[in-house]
Structure formats: C-alpha cells, structure tokens
Amino acid sequence: MSLIVVVDYGMGNLRSVAKALEHVAPQHEIQITGDPKRVDAASRVVFPGQGAMPDCMRHLAESGLTDALLRAAASRPLLGICVGEHMLLDESDESATDKATPGLGLIAGRVERFGEHFDADGFRLKVPHMGWNRVQQLGSHPLWDGIDDGSWFYFVHSFYAVPQRSSDAAAHTDYGTRFTCALARDNIFASQFHPEKSASRGLRLYENFVRWNP
Fold first, then answer.
1. Contact (Cβ atoms closer than 8 angstroms) between residue 39 and residue 74
2. pLDDT, tens digit (0-9, with 9 covering 90-100), for 96-127
C-alpha cells in the first residue's frame, strides 16, 4: 500500500480533497500531513491552496514544508489545486504591498487578477469567478483520460495563471476572457478548478493522478 499525502500547511481544502482520493484509491494510504518526513515518504503529493496567495506562501514557509515540497516536485507526481497551482509559478499580482508575491518558481510564469470583463451579451462578469465552467483541454495529457473535452468543472477564484511557455498550459477556460486553467510540466499537474467539487469528472481526474506514472 503506497502513501499519497495531502500537504497541510494551514491553507487548504484538505478534508474534501482527502475524501475524494480515498474514494478513487481505496488501495492506497491517504494522509493529510504537515510532517516533511511523511511528504518525503509519499509516492504522490497533492498540494491544495485556499485564500490569499501571500498568506499561503507565508504559512508554507512557516510550516517548514517548503523543502520537502520542492523535493517532491523534483521526483514524484505532484498535483496542485487552486492557489496551490498559483504557488508553483514565479510570482503573483496578489499582494499586500506594491510588490509581487514570490512563488516557488517551479513553472515559469505569473499570476494575474481578472480585470473588468463582459460576457457575449455585454453584461459585466462578477469577480470572483465562481461556479461551473467548461474546460477545453490542450493536448492529450494522461490526467484527461476518460474526461470529455469541454467538460464542466467548478471554479472559485479572482486570479489566474499566465504561464511563460504555452507548452505548460494543459487547458483553458473562457470567462469573458480566455485564461489558462490547468498547467502541466514533466511530473507536475495543477488546476485552477477544484476537482473535489467537480462531481464525476473531478473524481476521474484524481483517479488518473493516482495511476499516472510520468
């Protein structure tokens, strides 16, 4: 029985993520942990995030988990979710000061805030973007296996990832503007949407992650 960990640094939707993993991977041990040694022992690592990115980066640094997370990102399948996706990039416009918030720098790019934007009928769209939207896949990544292109996933966010390399974008979504909603590079996959809140498509994505051998 291999170990899959959900990283607990105090800023994530941990329980629902763990429950989704338990549902799709009953043959694995699923553990929520803030122990770097358990992260090092895991075969796969899930990195959620919820709230403001400056707070998430601060909590991660204070937790002592940064190095263990970086070791995981260098060697094992890693799944980032929501702000966990943002934190993988170089920096974010979401900041308490006039300076960008530094990220982990695992994927080149930055995080930007939604500007004023409108739907096809000219109505101003609300920020945060909250609710179900179609996800258009870019390429045939193993985590899309069995998930129809254009499937609906659940979003809650005001900021979105802008990868420097187009090859790192795994999917996009339209919300008045087209934005990247999933990233993929080597053994890392990350989504802006919440798979654990996305019904059968989200469970299938978690199942694919458990089976993924990059």
1. no
2. 788 899 999 999 999 999 877 766 766 777 87
The single residue listed with the structure tokens 């469970």 is: 203
CATH code for the domain in which residue 161 is found? 3.40.50.880
**Could you give the number of structural domains in the chain?**
1
Q: What is the residue type of 188?
A: I
Q: For residues 153 and 131, is the Cβ–Cβ distance under 8 A?
A: no
Q: Quick check: is 116 catalytic?
A: no
Q: What is the pLDDT of residues 10-27, one digit of tens each?
A: 987 899 999 999 999 999
Which candidate in 94, 157, 194, 207 is catalytic?
194
Catalytic residue among 56, 82, 85, 86: 82
Alpha-carbon distance of 163 to 167, in angstroms, equals 9
**Is 196 among the residues known to form the active site?**
yes
Q: How many CA atoms lie within 13 A of 66 on its CB side?
A: 15
Which DSSP letter does residue 99 get?
A: S
- Say which of 86, 94, 172, 196 is annotated catalytic: 196
35, amino acid identity: D
pTM: 0.94
Cβ burial, residue 71 (10 Å; 0-12/13-18/19+): middle
Q: State which residues form the domain around 160.
A: 3-211
